[in-house]
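Let us work through a complete example step by step.
Step 1: write down the sequence.
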Amino acid sequence: MKKTLPLTITFLAGFYMILAFFVPHKIIAASAQEMQSWEIIIVAFTLVLGIGNLIQVHADKIHRQKSGWYYSLVLLICLVSMMVIGLFWGISEGTVYYWLYDNVMAPLSAAMFSLLAFFIASAAYRAFRARNKEATLLLVAATIIMIGRIPLGNVIWHHLPWLGAKFPNALEGLTQWIMDIPNAAGQRGIKIGAALGAVSMALRMLLGIERSYLTTGGGN
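Step 2: predict the structure and record it as tokens.
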């Protein structure tokens, strides 16, 4: 019963939404819209559960004084502070919450995302090494795109002794062709593969084959 009830609800709700998509009857459409409203409420509850789980995990880490426990302490202090300030003094423009978000949260987020540039550079170095013909092709295409997409690249191209004068728009045209044809084809292939994977996973969940979401680690 502990697993049968969730599997039954998942099966009925999932296939009813599929039925509502293919059968445009007003009664079915209205009930499907009502179910989507319930979904929003359930998602709101999962946010509360997520915050509770976050507090539980980090409180336990602080209690046991595990490695890096002081980071957990800072996290909980900031979490509780922002919640209290937002609940009692509001979150509109001009409030303390707004100031903290604008002057602390936003710069910290920008700093964190700026660190991704170093990881991207490291990943690009490893990916663009010409170890085989596929990597060499990727290296050549990436070099053309990087040169063709910056103003300095066009300036260098136009000042090349023979190519720049003979084919002034060749670099721009080749860059655009790579973006429109091979790049677009690759992106569409990835999107189609991801969509097929999502459909496959959804069917597995609706049919009760995929049950990992019912437990913390097992599939049965």
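Step 3: interpret the result. Residues 45 and 135 are 47 Å apart (CA to CA).
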